[in-house]
Structure formats: C-alpha cells, structure tokens
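Take a look at the protein record below and flag anything odd:
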Amino acid sequence: MSRVLRRVLIVEDDRALSAALARLALIWCDDVTSVDGVEAARRALANAPPELLLVDLRLPDGSGFDVVEAACATRPLPVIVAMSGQATPEDSFRLAHMGVRGWVTKPFTTEAITRAVETARTQAPPLASIGAWCVGVAPMREVHRVLRWSMVDQAIALSAGNRSRAAQLLHVSRQAMQQVLRARDGAARTRIRSTVR
C-alpha cells in the first residue's frame, strides 16, 4: 500500500509494537500519532481526527471499545482496525456493530496488519448496524438527513476538498451533492437565527 492516507492514529500500550506499527504506517502517510491509552486517544481524536485508527482492545486506562466509541463521534469517520490477543467472539460481534471494519489477532505479521488495513479501507461501513442503532432513538427522516450530510462530509474529506471527486465517490452528480450542501447550510443558518433570538 502506498501513501494513500493523510493521518493515522495508533492506540497501543506495548511500546515495541507501537513503534513497529508507526514505522509501518509511515509507508502509508507522513502524519502518524501513537498514544498508549484511552484518554490520550480521546485527546488525539479531538485534536486531529485520523483517516485510519489502529486500536488495541486492552489498554491500561480502559478499553479499546471506549476509543472506538469516541472515534465514531468524529467526522469524517475513520477506518478502524482493532487488534487484540484476548478478544472473544462477543467482542468481535460488538466491534462489527460499532463500525469496526478490520480485525487482527495478536501476535500478527506486517503482512496481516497491512492486509487488514487494505481490506478495511475497501469495505463499506455496516449500514445495517447504523440504521439499527437509530430505531426508537431518532425519526427516520432525521436519520436520512444526517446520513446524507455525513456521506457528503466523508466524501469531501476523502477527496481533499475536491467536490467533483467527492461526487464521483458518492456516485451522484456534482449538482445533487451541491443541493445537499445547500440544504445543510440553510438548516444551519436557521438554527443559528433561532438560537440568537
């Protein structure tokens, strides 16, 4: 895999493994951040959301599940690959429902983690899981609106701001994408006006 990512975040408390993953990630991009716990990961996610998150499930100050949950709140949503030597089938199921697209069991080879990252980057996120989370929580119309806006934001981020390329990623016309952006901007202005009053 060549330099196709802008930013990678590694959350791993084993220093030797973290350093090895950072060296590998430098092949994919120039901006690699390594942290060793949940709180440091939350700060890194808030400061500079990554395109790729490699996260260990067992961390000294909590669980990798907490990191995944924090990552799922960032925009654009990163591709997440989880790593663990002690995960259960229930852990794997829960991670898949949280949107984790890749998985490697420790110990792993460079080829195994590279393959997991490449596979995760080419898979679509689990839309059925996202939709299932919303039942009873949000009206369907709101879910549609937020999903449209999130997809456009993600496509623009993945295409480095190029709206024509973003429209291609979404398989829509540039005009259709612009219409979604105008609707979102109009809704944001309406919210601001109602807050100011």
In short: Strands lie at 7-11, 31-35, 52-56, 58-59, 62-63, 79-84, 102-105. Residues 174-196 form the longest helix (23 residues). Residues 50 and 86 are 25 Å apart (CA to CA).
